[in-house]
Sequence to fold (325 residues):
Amino acid sequence: MHTTLNGIKIHSIATALPPDIEDLNDLDIIFGEDETKRIIKTNGIEQIRKAPDELCSSDMCAAAAKIILTPELIEQVDGIVFVSQTPDHILPATAGILQHRLGLSKSCVAIDINHGCNGYIYGLYQSAMMVAGGGCRSVIMCAGDALSRYVNPLDKNERMVFGDAGSATLITRGDREIGFAFHTDGSGAEHLIIPAGGCRKPICDETSNVDMRPDGGMRSDEDLFINGIEVMNFSLREVPKAVAEAIDVIGWTKESVTLFGLHQANKFIVDYLRKMLKVPAGKVPVAMKHTGNTSAASIPLMLCNERERLISEQMLSKSVLCDDE
Fold:
């Protein structure tokens, strides 16, 4: 499916990170020095940000939203979308809780979306539809995850990848057009999953048993599992086609795109996709080195980091000019 939505704009983006930092080099005590160094080199991740037990993804998203929402903007927001696979509760919807916490109008429409790595795009699409359709003046879209809570500390495959973060994006009425291209293949569900905890496989004594799995990871059925090879192959096979379709939908050329904002899974995948797309390295930021794969928050976090980098470079250039003068 592909489409374009008109009469909207992305007003602002903000992100929030938890305070705790885990240096992955310190994990050589658990996983061995050679294996730890190999994983760090492949993934390009040296640190991850971890939310303490009392901090949820909604807390990080709320912190990001409060950076954006001035008293004037709060009055204009009549929609909130919360995108996460780590909600506060099974029910009620976390979006409704955030509506109250952020002081939004009670006439606000509130929607939860259960998506992870692709969640930011789904949230953007839902929010843009709400504005473009005329139902909302402004929508605050909160996207974030605290997946480290579902990672077994003895599972090197997941512990050295996933970090936590929250984001907020304000979508308002404007004069912009946004193009979307979606592809869905549910046949690969088993390759990225927390098997137990839902209605299909309720938690019991058996699901909490931790043991060595065929891929070498130590975990239970209540822990996050990702089949890295299968997910990587899927990404390399499908993402270039989706990018080409999205560019075509909006009527651009690949050369006219100034930045390709890819999900920050790991450095190897992002670099490989860039080579497949045949675009310069400067157009495809890699920004998970000090945060890890932050799931639904990875794209806004990368965009905010990229903006800070560009501002820093501009300030440095100005200071050099002053020194020369």
In short: The radius of gyration is 20 Å. Residues 298-324 form the longest helix (27 residues).
